[in-house]
Write a structure and sequence with these properties.
mainly alpha; elongated
């Protein structure tokens, strides 16, 4: 963890030589089969402004049966950096199959495939929302989507009630204030 944090901090602050030296250690650990190091290596390469190399590393990480959702989310992030939304969608769909209860995966897919997203696809969007409703019907994201649907259909009191309940259980910023 220290090596990853230090390498990424160096990359973020423009200390390229130091970041490259630390990343070389991550690459060496990756070659020895350390999956955490492989994930850190790909993320560090992205921060070092080497997205193609980062993608190669992330693709290799996602190529075997030991893949986890974090690996696929990283690949999606790198693909978006390279303006390859379909690669990101494919990775996120694989992640959703591995762990359908992670609402953050659905959120990313909705942003990619929804109105104004780089890969608008109404059918795929409906499937993501339907699966989210089945797997995480009480998630903040699904409640917000449902409230928006109710508001669009003129059921303002129901939408308001859902949003007020949602905000009552959250301790962060107001959610759905544009609908209230």
């Amino acid at each position: 963890a220290w090596l990853e944090a230090h390498a990424q901090a160096c990359a973020l602050t423009g200390r390229w030589e130091r970041a490259a030296a630390l990343d070389a250690e991550l690459a060496q650990r990756t070659a020895q089969g350390d999956r955490d190091a492989a994930r850190a290596h790909a993320a560090t390469l992205l921060l070092m402004q080497q997205p193609k190399r980062a993608q190669e590393s992330a693709v290799a990480l996602c190529a075997d049966d030991a893949v986890i959702t974090d690996d696929l989310k990283l690949l999606a992030r790198i693909a978006l950096n390279l303006e390859e939304p379909q690669t990101a969608i494919d990775a996120l769909n694989r992640a959703r199959l591995l762990y359908p209860f992670d609402a953050s995966i659905s959120d990313r897919l909705i942003r990619l495939q929804g109105n104004g997203g780089p890969s608008e696809n109404e059918d795929a969007l409906r499937e993501v929302v339907r699966d989210l409703g089945v797997n995480r019907p009480r998630s903040d994201l699904f409640v917000l989507l449902r409230a928006g649907d109710l508001a669009r259909n003129g059921l303002m009191r129901e939408a308001e009630s859902m949003l007020l309940d949602l905000n009552a259980r959250r301790r962060s910023d107001l959610t759905g204030e544009d609908l209230l």
